[in-house]
């Protein structure tokens, strides 16, 4: 095969060649023996395939296929999924009911010393909060947290 | 008789009679295509069954005929089957039993081409047995379902260029092999 336009011939045969290129290809095919033969063969191959008889469905296979019930398998899956969902919900409810009541807030706010360090107000700065007092508060906070961790 | 869309809708709602109607109407055709794709009877039957199961789960939008939509599912199922390790292991035992089966015969009918006297008609499974599984798939989708390159690319999950090159190679192979029938 030497002609460089055979791909276009396939596209033309399949109706995939853009309309603007059709006339030019038809003119080429009329002049090119190779492409002319290719197009004739492609048409013949298509006819041969379309006319080819299909294998017969055996009677026993037809019976088996007639018995298949795709929704039965799905219904089973849906039923199992329903059971699993119900079981998961029950476990969650029990877990919530058995959880000990915790009075402490979920997210602790900043400790007083943290607030003071980052937002020193004028009156505090003026008055009693010295660096020594801040350090003591920090030490107290940290020791409380450690004790809590160990508990 | 419900149209394709109505039939698909009834099946999705679990209408057993509608499903039976679909099986009765389409199973023989799908089986013939499946035999051409995978070669042997057992795999072909499995494929058709999987196709009907896939049709029940999938959503038919009416963009093509129900048959074309089913063939698309069938071809994808054949691809999945081919890639399964189980099938690869058993391939030497299962691949193309066309020659040992009535599907492998050449049908001869009187009339037809006067120059030959008798028109020899190859069955589809025999014709496509010469091709690789990938090439069989594109031939089925293009020649029997009339899909465009884009539709084939979407159905097979491959680029359009790959569709084209497979189609061209498959046809060249058929052209060479069946020169005497053209």
* Mean residue pLDDT of chain B: 82
Nearest-angstrom radius of gyration of chain A?
Answer: 42 Å
Q: State the separation between the terminal residues of chain B, measured CA to CA.
A: 40 Å
Q: What best-fitting shape of chain A do the alpha-carbon axes yield? A: elongated
What is the spatial order of strands in the main beta sheet of chain B?
1-2
Helix percent of chain A reads: over 70%
Q: Report the CATH superfamily of chain B.
A: PhyR, sigma-like (SL) domain
Order of helices and strands of chain B: HHHHHEEHHHH
Structural class determined from secondary elements of chain A: mainly alpha
Which structural class should the secondary elements of chain B be placed in?
mainly alpha
**CATH level 1 class label of chain B:** Mainly Alpha
The count of strands of chain B amounts to 2
Seen as an oligomer or otherwise, the chain set is heterodimer
Number of domains of chain B: 1
Beta strand count of chain A? 0
User: What count of helical segments of chain A does DSSP give?
Assistant: 8
The CATH architecture classification of chain B is Up-down Bundle
Task: Please summarize what this structure is.
The complex is a heterodimer of chains A (151) and B (182). Chain A is mainly α. Chain A contains eight helices and no strands.
Task: Describe this entry's structure for a reader.
The complex is a heterodimer of chains A (151) and B (182). With 151 residues, chain A is mostly helical. Helix content of chain A is 73%, strand content 0%. In chain A, helix 1 packs parallel to helix 3 and helix 6 (112-118) crosses helix 8 (131-150). The longest helix of chain A has 29 residues, at 70-98. Chain B has 9 helices and 2 strands. Residues 98-119 of chain B have low confidence and may be disordered. In chain B, helix 2 packs across helix 7 (133-144). Chain B has a two-stranded antiparallel ribbon with strand order 1-2. Chain B is mainly alpha-helical and 182 residues long. Chain A binds chain B through residues 6-7, 10-11, 14-16, 40-42, 44-46, 48-58, 61-62, 64-66, 68-71, 73-74, and chain B through 14, 16, 19-20, 23-24, 27-29, 31-33, 35-36, 41, 44-45, 48-49, 52-53, 55-57, 101-103, 107, 121-125, 127, 139, 142-144, 148-149, 164, 167-168, 171, 174-175, 178, 181-182.
């Amino acid at each position: 095969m030497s002609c460089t336009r055979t791909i276009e011939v396939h596209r033309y045969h399949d109706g995939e060649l853009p309309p603007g290129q059709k006339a030019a290809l038809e003119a080429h095919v009329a002049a090119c023996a190779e492409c002319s033969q290719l197009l004739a063969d492609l048409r013949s191959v298509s006819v041969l395939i379309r006319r080819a008889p299909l294998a017969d469905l055996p009677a026993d296979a037809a019976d088996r296929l007639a018995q298949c019930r795709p929704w039965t398998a799905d219904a089973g899956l849906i039923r199992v999924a329903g059971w699993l969902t119900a079981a998961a919900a029950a476990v969650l409810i029990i877990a919530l009911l058995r959880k000990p009541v915790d009075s402490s807030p979920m997210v602790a706010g900043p400790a007083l010393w943290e607030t003071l360090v980052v937002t020193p107000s004028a009156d505090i700065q003026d008055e009693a909060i010295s660096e020594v007092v801040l350090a003591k508060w920090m030490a107290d906070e940290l020791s409380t947290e450690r004790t809590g961790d160990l508990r | 008789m419900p149209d394709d869309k109505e039939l698909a809708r009834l099946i999705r709602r679990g209408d057993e009679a509608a499903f039976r109607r679909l099986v009765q109407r389409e199973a023989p055709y799908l089986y013939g295509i499946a035999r051409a794709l995978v070669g042997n009877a057992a795999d072909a039957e499995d494929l058709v069954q999987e196709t009907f199961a896939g049709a029940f789960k999938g959503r038919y939008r009416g963009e093509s005929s129900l048959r074309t939509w089913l063939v698309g599912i069938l071809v994808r199922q054949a691809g999945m089957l081919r890639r399964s390790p189980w099938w690869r292991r058993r391939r030497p035992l299962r691949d193309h039993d066309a020659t040992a089966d009535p599907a492998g015969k050449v049908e001869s009918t009187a009339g037809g081409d006067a120059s030959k006297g008798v028109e020899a008609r190859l069955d589809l499974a025999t014709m496509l047995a010469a091709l690789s599984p990938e090439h069989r798939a594109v031939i089925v989708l293009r020649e029997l379902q009339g899909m465009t390159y884009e539709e084939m690319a979407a159905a097979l999950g491959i680029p359009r260029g790959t569709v084209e090159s497979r189609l061209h190679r498959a046809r060249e192979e058929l052209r060479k092999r069946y020169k005497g029938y053209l």
